[in-house]
Amino acid sequence: MSDRQTSRAGMALALAFFSGMLSSSLPTPLYPVYISLYGFSASQIMAVFGVYAAGVLFALAFTAKVHIRTSLYTRPLYAGLTCVLLSSLLMMFADNFMILILGRFVTGLGSGILMAYINRSLIKLFDTEVSNTAALTASASLILGQAIGPLITGEIVHRGFYALKTPYIILFILVVMSIFGIWRSRLVINRHCTTVTIERKSAGAQSYRGLCFRDVIVCCMAIFLSWAMASTFMSQGPTLARSYFNVASVQLVSYSLSAFLLVAGISQIVMRKKHHYSSLKIGVVAQLAAVLLALSSVHTKAPSLLFISVMLEGFAYGAILVGAATIVNMVARQSQQHHLINLLYIVGYVGNWLPFSLSVMMDHFTQETALNAYLILCSILSTCIFLSAYFAVRCQNITGRTRKN
């Protein structure tokens, strides 16, 4: 297959993953609209948020146990895109709680299936390259989809242009385009894995040396806290900025969160040039600094410190994601255990639930006490992850020197 065909297939997979991730964040600005129109309670909206994550986790757990031949990878891709297509129709006409719940669960199923098999397809597609192209493509599509969704819907809601239907019409069109793109590139996506050449083994020997399941555990730990911190800023940030840090401007908070995701995307591009473990280490250090800065901002009630913490966490989010995804992709390819890719994203989505502990603490204690307790917990976790990454790199270096001798 030509490089042009491979690039076209990669773009089709990226668009499909982008569409799946867009579906995950697209309804976020609509939740207040649902509350005002249909009288949904806050607990019902929280249930809608949780059922999406449940759908993703169910799909990832199921696909981890299902073996599909590499020559048939387009089938689960069609299934995932069909779920997103169906969910867009359900959400477009959701006028009661049960349809909304069903629509979000189907969205989660589609996102989970796409997350599993697009990552596997990208690994197979770029298997002859000594690079992290597959990991970068997947992580960039994930972040862009999650970042652009609220911006699209927020602008539509602001302008009052058929707010409950227009976002899902846009999603529907993107999914149809994705299905067409996957169909056109089906021969490339379904081609058999080529035998890794000796030249590639030689060129990539240093990158692969010493990687094992221990490194996957370190990556999962880093992803867990990274996604937990990102979810904390995205879900609790606007409320805390207004009530605790006295930031009255809603636009300023929204722009800060958009900047957070933009920094995360840029850091992926920058850290792509680094060695995968260097990217992970730098991200883990930046994450620890971000948590400590956030803790300091709580004590001083300084919005400027919080803003710096959010930007630093954005950098850490991108660096950890591209580094961890590359390492897990390598281990999965070496061991032929592609379910490890599912494991990484399962842990990440479980991390999204950590901020619920902050909500519970805020219900029973003052905001300052709850924030201090939550951020101290995150600081301890971040320190443990930093030490784990440090010793993992040290063991890898010792193993590399031993094999060399």
TrEMBL record:
<keyword id="KW-0813">Transport</keyword>
<keyword id="KW-1133">Transmembrane helix</keyword>
<dbReference type="InterPro" id="IPR011701">
    <property type="entry name" value="MFS"/>
</dbReference>
<feature type="transmembrane region" description="Helical">
    <location>
        <begin position="305"/>
        <end position="328"/>
    </location>
</feature>
<feature type="transmembrane region" description="Helical">
    <location>
        <begin position="210"/>
        <end position="230"/>
    </location>
</feature>
<keyword id="KW-0472">Membrane</keyword>
<feature type="transmembrane region" description="Helical">
    <location>
        <begin position="37"/>
        <end position="64"/>
    </location>
</feature>
<feature type="transmembrane region" description="Helical">
    <location>
        <begin position="373"/>
        <end position="393"/>
    </location>
</feature>
<feature type="transmembrane region" description="Helical">
    <location>
        <begin position="130"/>
        <end position="148"/>
    </location>
</feature>
<feature type="transmembrane region" description="Helical">
    <location>
        <begin position="168"/>
        <end position="189"/>
    </location>
</feature>
<feature type="transmembrane region" description="Helical">
    <location>
        <begin position="340"/>
        <end position="361"/>
    </location>
</feature>
<feature type="transmembrane region" description="Helical">
    <location>
        <begin position="76"/>
        <end position="93"/>
    </location>
</feature>
<protein>
    <submittedName>
        <fullName>MFS transporter</fullName>
    </submittedName>
</protein>
<feature type="transmembrane region" description="Helical">
    <location>
        <begin position="99"/>
        <end position="118"/>
    </location>
</feature>
<feature type="transmembrane region" description="Helical">
    <location>
        <begin position="250"/>
        <end position="270"/>
    </location>
</feature>
<dbReference type="Pfam" id="PF07690">
    <property type="entry name" value="MFS_1"/>
</dbReference>
<feature type="transmembrane region" description="Helical">
    <location>
        <begin position="282"/>
        <end position="299"/>
    </location>
</feature>
<dbReference type="InterPro" id="IPR050930">
    <property type="entry name" value="MFS_Vesicular_Transporter"/>
</dbReference>
<keyword id="KW-0812">Transmembrane</keyword>
<dbReference type="InterPro" id="IPR036259">
    <property type="entry name" value="MFS_trans_sf"/>
</dbReference>
